Amino acid sequence: METEAAVVFEKSGEFKIEPLELSEPNADEVLVRIVAVGICHTDLAGRDQHLPIPLPSVFGHEGAGVVEKVGSCVNKVKPGDHVALSWMSCGECTSCKAGKDPYCVNFLSLNFSGARPDGTTTLRKGDQVIHGSFFGQSSFANFALATERNIVKVSKDVPLEILGPLGCGIMTGAGAVMNSLQARPGTSIAIFGAVQ
Description:
10 strands
């Protein structure tokens, strides 16, 4: 199917909007029409090649949207459902089985290889391979492929525009406060940040 995506062709290059061909969903995949997406420092680190991401590539890992199509093995969602997208994990390693999928032993290959777990790529521009599957989604596009493992069904009454950052920025910040800091209800914390 046709989509448009922000493609980075070279190290530290611009995000160029390009028409691309997106694969049909595999049996375990979900096609999502992206409504909102956040941008994270990790997207820029990939663009600038501080992470081992093959180029050309489509980044984006804070997507939210509407399910358009599901593969034959997908049971978690159906077309029309609203979803937020997050990182990929294998579901089989000891970390995943312990409920700690951010520490999946296959995290690097599943999120930074530029391809599906089976090594196939999802995006093309003519005969040129464009690497996708960034964090199992590559959501800097009109449409993205994800799997049941990295989507969360959300209520249709919550605006998708505010859910994009849920898949990384909010989970990372909330996870640090709840899991590492272990802040209890009623305690106070100070959060500092900078604005450019």
